[in-house]
Amino acid sequence: MGEVSGAGGFPRLAGVSGPGVLRRVGEGLRAYRLIAGMWIRSTLAYRASFALTVFGNLLVTGLDFVAILLMFSQVDSLGGWSLPEVALLYGLSATAFGTADLVIGSMDTLGVRIRDGSFDTLLVRPAPVLAQVAADRFALRRLGRITQGSLVLGWALTAVDVDWSGPKALLVPVMLAGGAAIFGAVFVAGASFQFVAQDAAEVQNAFTYGGTTLLQYPPSVFGRDLVRGVTFLVPLSFVNWLPASFLLGRPLPLGLPWWAAFATPLVAAACWVPAGLAWRAGLRSYRSTGS
């Protein structure tokens, strides 16, 4: 089987084969591990600075939850949801997003690389470009967001009134892993758009950082059209709104059936298909700055 030129100047096999895909995935994971490891070692060389940065990140991200606490100092419920229930939404959203932000959050810097021409250096390296971009400047300080979200989530799980069962207990890690995967797909799709716009970091952030802020509040405080969009267009509601509603014994938004609460992994996989295609199309359309 012959070779033809692939996106980014890399050779690829003519035709798609299972072993070839697995090999590329393995290469990507290895490249990601090496690049991220380099940035982690650089960060930990100054441990005091790292600890202060993580602590500061934890405090800054915690201001979002302080705003929720201030709201509940004036009201007993928000859209019919109690403080522990809203804290559950907050903890799930912040932890899932924090995980995606840690692993692949550097994708939002792609526009800068495209504009200054430094993206060209990634194309000549013998490693998948997506892995290089995702691991570039791996920011271990983002553990602060995950830690803060996990603390709120831990308190919320002990404070909410839930009739726990096996499926409900399994739903919590499914929400966290699936939610992180959904946010990761949004990061990749947003980065793909930057091949066209080149200065679209804020557009991407509207769906990533803006999305996690949206999910920290109950769906009942938003208009029905917005809830439809967050469910069927950019399916962020599968991160926490739908599964958390089932967990709390509440009707699912938009009258969806109960089994939709368990669809988060399937939705995450479905999100990665167009995100991957968009990334491939963007990479193929890239033209160097020439500088």
Automatic annotation (TrEMBL):
Source domain of life: Bacteria
Membrane-spanning residues: 50-75, 87-105, 146-164, 170-189, 226-244, 256-279
Database matches in Pfam families: ABC2_membrane_6
Keyword terms: Membrane, Transmembrane, Transmembrane helix
Protein name: ABC transporter permease
